[in-house]
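step=encode ok
step=design start
structure_in=
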């Protein structure tokens, strides 16, 4: 008897949106391993750290905190730089965030154009930061707040929008949808289909997708309380993008 894998179905439109207004343009379900034709495993200005701290399995991209050969926690970036760009549309990720002091997971759109750095941060979380999470009885920091941020990128520090959002739930305990609708002159950011903030600014450059687990910034410095290993992964169930019809 021959068994067949379940048929792959085209995802519906963006969560909570009118699907008839969109055409699917990017669909990464992480069902077929790590696609090196689509994704890089390091940011453009740095090489790839040889210590293994990411994989694609069980239909998910997993990136976890890990010390490298030098004993330090290190940043891991998965992006489509040079491989996939889009101008305008709807970008959505479903993910579960890691916990631990110093963890800094993010989902963003970016481009490096000569000296300009346009950037739309759809989700950044800082579990170890004051006001960004809580510490459990074992001393482990959990994220319950994240931020959406827009950087115009025409000069250093030109921030056009910033919004911290607290849902009142542990973002490392379950999967949630983080998204942006990017229109000419306007971006609207969503959490599980609910509007978080709207930024009225023109961002006209095509951008690529970034998924990363970095360390530091508002989350503090990771230490021995920061859980290492795959069981504490930034787990991405899918990344999808649509263009407007």
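sequence_out=
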């Amino acid at each position: 008897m021959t068994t067949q894998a379940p048929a792959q179905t085209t995802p519906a439109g963006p969560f909570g949106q009118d699907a008839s207004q969109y055409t699917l343009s990017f669909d990464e379900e992480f069902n077929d391993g790590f696609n090196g034709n689509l994704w890089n495993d390091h940011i453009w200005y740095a090489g790839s750290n040889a210590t293994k701290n990411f994989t694609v399995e069980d239909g998910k991209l997993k990136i976890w905190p890990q010390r490298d050969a030098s004993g330090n926690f290190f940043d891991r970036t998965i992006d489509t730089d040079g491989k996939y760009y889009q101008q305008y549309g709807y970008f959505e990720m479903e993910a579960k965030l890691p916990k631990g002091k110093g963890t800094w997971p993010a989902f963003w759109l970016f481009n490096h154009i000569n000296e300009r750095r346009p950037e739309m941060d759809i989700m950044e979380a800082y579990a170890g930061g004051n006001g960004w999470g809580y510490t459990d009885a074992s001393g482990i920091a959990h994220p319950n707040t994240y931020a959406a941020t827009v950087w115009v990128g025409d000069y250093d520090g030109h921030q056009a929008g910033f919004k911290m959002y607290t849902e009142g739930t542990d973002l490392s305990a379950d999967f949630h949808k983080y998204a942006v609708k990017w229109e000419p002159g306007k971006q609207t950011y969503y959490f599980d289909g609910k509007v978080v903030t709207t930024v009225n600014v023109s961002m006209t450059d095509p951008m690529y997708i970034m998924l990363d687990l970095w360390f530091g910034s508002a989350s503090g410095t990771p230490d021995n309380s920061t859980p290492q290993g795959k069981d504490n992964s930034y787990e991405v169930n899918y990344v999808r993008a649509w263009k407007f019809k």
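step=design ok
step=annotate ok -> DSSP finds no helices and 16 strands in the chain.
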